[in-house]
Specification:
The chain contains 16 helices and 12 strands. The chain is of the alpha+beta class. The chain has a 7-stranded mixed beta sheet, with helices on both faces. A 5-stranded mixed beta sheet has the order 8-12-9-11-10, sandwiched between helices. Helix 1 packs across helix 15 and helix 10 crosses helix 16. It is globular and about 60 Å long.
């Protein structure tokens, strides 16, 4: 069980995006047995079936449209806390029984919480799919939440925060940068929560959260693997279909980020840091909030600028100038609200962090000024296509892209139309989003420095 940290979300997106860009294009010419099916149960639960008959394995995921950015003020961390509580006893099953059942059949399971959703997943043989559905449907509404259960699991998440955040200088800096980048949007609050608020979470908070959000009409079921859509529908109706629909939830409207007009910096010096590093971030549109073509252009901009060892940043700073041990860029597009675009770097050898930062800024400025070439744009698109060939080998990649898209305001058609939208992005569009959004005067930069560099 884990909250989905920044690096994990970026990794998930990279794999998922590779599938999204080409999967539907390949599926268009595939037999009906391999096409995605989407339907609603009577209680409002959406179900997506992604057949893949290459191996007798199935990935079963339940995505709840609730994440840390939906938490009530002063209750930070409760979404992640409740992810943990979902593994406790229900009126029908003892604590640990679900995990033991999965272990007994050689399967695997886990869960994660992000800003916009919470997901639970199991990978098992197809013959165990009904069992997984029955367990998940049971804990959707039948958890037993006692004060002892709350106290024990609250201690677990507090220790998790100490070990994963407070004991990690990079994680501490990431939190401070997020709190500075976002002035009003709830993405400024860490997914795991602030310590002083986590300590106060109680059974009343947990029960209210459970009753409000853990309902079939606020959930998406993704089943990917060696299954048939009609069989999945029958099993879903038999299990999840028996769970009563909850009250309709209001639209997920969150505080709007104000116009940003300043350059901000956050600096952390720590004795545990041996190599300095920096990252610069901007607030940019996501696939859900952007104008047509903007998010696609930002995705390709990130790929061209810093998406791998063929990117401009890697070639200029690591290969040619030899001043950086790492340099890159990424864009987290699958978010319900606006998101961030990030560039980063760390020096190599005797090079100074300031030299690396200046070189990164120069590459950004060059794209803003001159744009990208048609050739490198086409190669960036092709790299997505080639990545897809490998991404399709993992059922969870397919399940993740559909789940994260549907949980952040998209639909199956958005995934299926993605390749065409990516292919139509022009070099002018990439230059336009760079010029519009990557403005240093409206950026937030975080510096992670060794202790002895304090004050420099």
């Amino acid at each position: 069980m884990t909250f989905q940290a920044e690096w994990l979300r970026a990794t998930l997106l990279a794999t998922s995006l590779a599938f999204a860009i080409t999967g539907p294009a390949l599926a268009d010419s595939a037999p009906d047995a391999f096409k995605v099916t989407d339907f609603l149960l009577d209680n409002g639960m959406e179900v997506v079936v992604i057949p893949d008959h290459r191996a007798p394995i199935v990935t079963h995921m339940v995505w709840y449209k609730i994440g840390s950015a939906d938490e009530p003020p002063g209750k930070s961390g409760i979404a992640h806390f409740f992810e943990h509580l979902m593994f406790k006893a229900t009126t029908h099953h003892a604590a640990g029984e679900f995990d033991r059942a999965i272990s007994d059949i050689g399967g695997s399971n886990n869960a994660f919480t992000s800003y916009d959703y919470t997901a639970f997943h199991e990978t098992v043989a197809p013959t165990a799919l009904e069992l997984m559905m029955s367990f998940e449907a049971d804990r959707m509404r039948n958890l037993i939440l006692t004060d002892d259960v709350i106290k024990t699991e609250r201690d677990v998440i507090l220790e998790e925060r100490r070990s994963r955040i407070d004991n990690n200088p990079e994680a501490v800096l990431d939190e401070e940068v997020d709190a500075t980048l976002w002035q009003n949007q709830p993405y400024r609050i860490p997914v795991i929560g602030w310590m002083q608020e986590m300590q106060q979470l109680n059974r009343t908070d947990a029960t209210a959260f459970y009753d409000r959000y853990y309902r079939p009409n606020n959930a998406v079921l993704i089943v990917a693997g060696d299954v048939e859509p009609d069989a999945v529908r029958a099993l879903a109706e038999k299990t999840y279909g028996k769970v009563a629909r909850g009250p309709d939830l209001p639209p997920r409207i969150r505080p709007v980020e104000p116009e940003q007009n300043t350059k901000r910096t956050v600096t952390l010096s720590d004795a545990r840091v041996s190599v300095p590093s920096f990252s610069t971030q901007w607030v940019v549109p996501s696939y859900h909030t952007g104008k047509p073509g903007e998010a696609e252009a930002l995705d390709l901009l990130a790929e061209i600028l810093g998406g791998g060892n063929r990117s401009r940043l890697y070639q200029a700073l690591v290969v040619q100038q030899g001043i950086a041990s790492s340099a890159g860029a990424f864009f987290q597009g699958t978010m319900l609200d606006d998101t961030n675009f990030t560039v980063y770097g760390a020096p190599r050898g005797d090079a100074k962090l300031a030299d690396v930062e200046a070189a990164v800024d120069a590459e950004v400025a060059r794209i803003v000024r001159d744009g990208v070439t048609p050739s490198e744009l086409e190669k960036a698109k092709d790299r997505y296509v080639r990545s897809m060939i490998f991404a399709r080998d993992k059922q969870d990649s397919m399940a993740n892209i559909y789940g994260s898209t549907l949980a952040t305001g998209g639909d199956v058609q958005d995934v299926q139309q993605w390749p065409d939208r990516i292919r139509t992005v022009t070099a002018d569009q990439v230059k336009a989003v760079a010029a519009r959004y990557l403005v240093l005067a409206r950026s937030t930069t975080g510096y992670l420095l060794p202790q002895q560099q304090a004050g420099n």
